[in-house]
Give the backbone structure.
Amino acid sequence: MNPRCEEIQSRLDEWLDNELNPVSRAEVTTHLTECAECRDVFTSFDLLNRNLVGLSSAADRIATAPRPPRIIRPFATPLRIAAAIALLATAGLGVRSALHRPDSPSQIVPPPVVVAENSAAPTIVASTPTLAVSLPTRNPHISIVMLYEPVRLPSASPAESKPSL
Amino acid sequence: MLEGPPAANAAADQTAAPTSLDELRRRMLGFAIKLVWNRDDAEEIVQDAFQLSLTKGPAVTDPALAPWLYRTVTNLCLNQRRRRPPQPLADWLDPQDATSPSDAVERAESIESLRAAIGNLPDQQRIALILRNMQQMDYNEIAQVMQLSVAAVRTHVHLARRALANKLGGSQ
Ligand SMILES: [Zn+2]
């Protein structure tokens, strides 16, 4: 490859990312009108970029498509509730009831049970400082909601915050 | 003739700071779908990530929440075992992108091969490429999410693009 082509092709990523200044961009465009080899390279990457946009739009349509109402998987499985309770126990933290707060913070009380007349799918309300675990019952209009105080472990395992890439 | 890089798609622009938890949830859902390609799986993963954030993540008002959620969604997607089959793409492509029925078929095929090729990239390349080209994040934001240097992220995106162009009949 001649040095000029090499130099032009070294700008390919910046060109794809729209990071070239107008002068540099114009140089690339001019070269592409004169050099079939570089034009082929840029064309194939341009096509890739456009297909990535198409793929991305498809994903966005999948994400936003309306869906028939359905029962969403319960917010927490029994195993997870057990794990959450175990976590609370090992952390020495209490469980807050929607109705009362235990006097001793280290006292473990069973998760409070609130019966809500609510047919809405269980959801998490992340803006409130409480973990709400909602479980459907056989009656579609009634779900059981358990409220937990948020738990912050001082030496929390960074398993979820460190990418295992 | 070359069209140049596609203009940033306003609807898909992920660079602006999320204005609400709902917006953040929508972004995470879009991202998870780009990794697992199944709405039900993606919904569950995002729900799990938000659930985890309550106990292990930054506070709701903390700007570190978004990168933390991206990381957590990434890990949950990469580690998930209960995978449902990917949804077929044909139903979700915009017919207006094609100039003719045969063009539509050809385009659907090339986008389907692209999806498969992205799925075969090494994890870091795949994540970096999806965040850059499909979530429209800038390199600094991606570096924050991936906990890498900007230079390393650029390298991953560069390698991913070349691998895909090679695979899909492009050039080097
Ligand atoms: Zn050239």
